[in-house]
UniProtKB/TrEMBL annotation:
EC nos: 2.1.1.-
UniProt cross-references to Gene3D superfamilies, sorted A to Z: Vaccinia Virus protein VP39
Protein source organism: Streptomyces sirii
Entries under CDD domains matching the protein: AdoMet_MTases
Tagged with keyword Transferase: yes
Record keyword Ion transport present: no
Keywords: Methyltransferase, Transferase
SUPFAM superfamilies (alphabetical): S-adenosyl-L-methionine-dependent methyltransferases (SSF53335)
Record domain Methyltransferase: where: 60-155
InterPro entries, A to Z: Methyltransf_25, SAM-dependent_MTases_sf
Pfam families reported for this sequence: Methyltransf_25 (PF13649)
Record protein name field: Class I SAM-dependent methyltransferase
GO molecular function: methyltransferase activity
């Protein structure tokens, strides 16, 4: 699962016993060599879908990490791209990489909490990849309200979401074990490290987005394949701020 350049078991253990912010600061130099970075097999179909939805002028990568989503936004935004993350270490890695790239648009890297975004309604597009497990279900209304507030009328909040694993499958038990271990860790150790893979459910998320004032569409991502029942393994949530 990890490249030779990735973190050691000891480094992962230290990260897991830290806060979310400090843990990612520690992991940042080796993050791109872990399976936690969104793979290109997901980024590419999302990029293509956004090209079909665009064009866009300005885009925000929410919880950008080292910039996987920033790379997507560079392909579909003509004027401005911004990455925002709470981890200064992750932002530094992304910023250093982008210094080697001279193509437009301009990229800004901003350290901020996604629950208190320091922007007005200046974006046409907000994307996020793999970050929602860091927010408890009760935090979703505030998080979605923040995204709504930084989008221009008609702007879109877009993110991929995978189908849940079939109950009883190896993936089902693996995710259940991870979330259970994380709950035990957080009950016994401070500061907490919030990361739960099974807490971000499509039906609940869709309902909350609608309550926030979004119009929600779901687009299949056929490149990610089909489940045994013929349903897509991955969908793209496209939430549009009503004008």
């Amino acid at each position: 699962m990890f490249a030779p350049q990735g973190p050691t078991f000891r480094e992962l253990a230290v990260q897991a016993l830290s806060s979310v912010e400090h843990g990612y600061d520690l992991l940042a130099p080796k993050f791109d060599h872990t399976p936690f970075r969104t793979p290109q097999s997901v980024l590419t179909p999302v990029s293509q879908a956004l090209l079909n939805l665009g064009p866009f002028e300005s885009g925000l990568d929410l919880c950008c990490g080292t910039g996987a989503g920033v790379g997507v936004l560079r392909q579909v935004c003509r004027e401005r791209v911004t990455g925002v993350d709470i981890s200064a270490g992750m932002l530094a890695v992304g910023r250093d990489r982008e210094r080697m790239t001279t193509t437009a648009p301009r990229i800004d890297w901003v350290r901020a909490d996604a629950r208190a975004l320091p922007f007005g309604p200046v974006f046409d597009l907000v994307v996020s990849f793999g970050a929602f497990g860091h927010f408890l279900p009760e935090e979703q209304p505030g998080l979605f309200a923040q995204v709504h507030s930084v989008l221009r009328p008609g702007g879109r909040f877009v993110f991929p979401i995978g189908a849940p694993p079939r109950p009883g499958s190896p993936a089902y038990w693996a995710l259940l074990a991870f979330d259970t271990a994380m709950r035990v860790r957080n009950a016994l150790w401070r500061p907490p490290f919030v990361m739960y893979y099974r807490a971000f459910r499509l039906a609940d998320v869709r309902a909350e987005l609608i309550r926030t004032g979004f119009e929600v569409e779901l687009h299949a991502l056929p490149e990610l394949g089909l489940r045994p029942d013929g349903s897509p393994r991955g969908r793209l949530v496209v939430a549009t701020r009503a004008r």
